Amino acid sequence: MARPSNRAPDEMRRVSLERSVARYAEGSCLVKFGETHVIVTASVEERAPAWLRGSGKGWVTAEYSMLPRATHERTRRESTAGKPSGRTQEIQRLIGRSLRSVVDLTALNERQITVDCDVIQADGGTRTASITGAWVALHDCFQWMIARQMIPANPLKDHVAAISCGISHGVPVLDLDYAEDSVAETDANFVMTGSGGIVEVQGTAEGAPFSEEELLSLMGLAKQGVAKLVDLQKLAVA
Predict the structure, then answer these.
(1) Which of 6, 12, 45, 128 could hold 162 in an S-S bridge, CB 3.0 to 4.6 Å?
(2) Is 23 assigned a ligand-binding role in the annotation?
(3) How far apart are CA 55 and CA 35, in angstroms?
(4) 94: closest CA among 164, 141, 31?
(5) How far are the Cα atoms of 27, 126, 206, 208, 227 from residue 185, in angstroms, in the given order?
(6) Which residues does the UniProt record annotate as the domain Exoribonuclease phosphorolytic (predicted)?
(7) Cα-flanking dihedrals φ and ψ of residue 40, to 5°?
(8) What integer is the mean pLDDT of 4-25?
């Protein structure tokens, strides 16, 4: 079975992580998974959400959006519709949960970090690219805070990254692009930490249900993919 991209089943797209791409943001990263490109910024707010005030604890949250011509046809800006779509809300909650899983929130005191993920070009895997790039932007945001003595040390406890896997023509494959994702029998997203912990698994059968054996095959591919992404994160911030 040949993949549309002619990649091997366990071969990822070319991934790059470029830091400091936004002049005014405390941390930023342009992340590319093949033809999927996302700009991620991290911003410090000197106040925690109202429900955390007085707790001595900070918060990390995320917002996600896709530019109108990130896809083949123009999509309407969600701001003109009055509210984000259900898909957008689900993705930005996933990004926030993923980042909080590796942050010592008490070390932030009562501050909030907002991570904005803006998709400028989409070709599958926008949420996984966002999470992977968000870690880099968050790392640099914390370094910015350390340099200004806002916090004594980096609150990051581990790396976190994400990758998609799927079953295409009966074969488990890693890092699906849109051409593959749109016809795959099974589509799954895996969020994992650098130490191998599982943060979230999202898996859906588009046709026939997938087996436990196939799930374990996808998990194995995801572990390989996330390990490579973590290595790239380490190189990016070295």
Answers:
(1) 128
(2) no
(3) 43
(4) 164
(5) 38, 19, 5, 7, 25
(6) 11-141, 160-225
(7) -120, 130
(8) 97
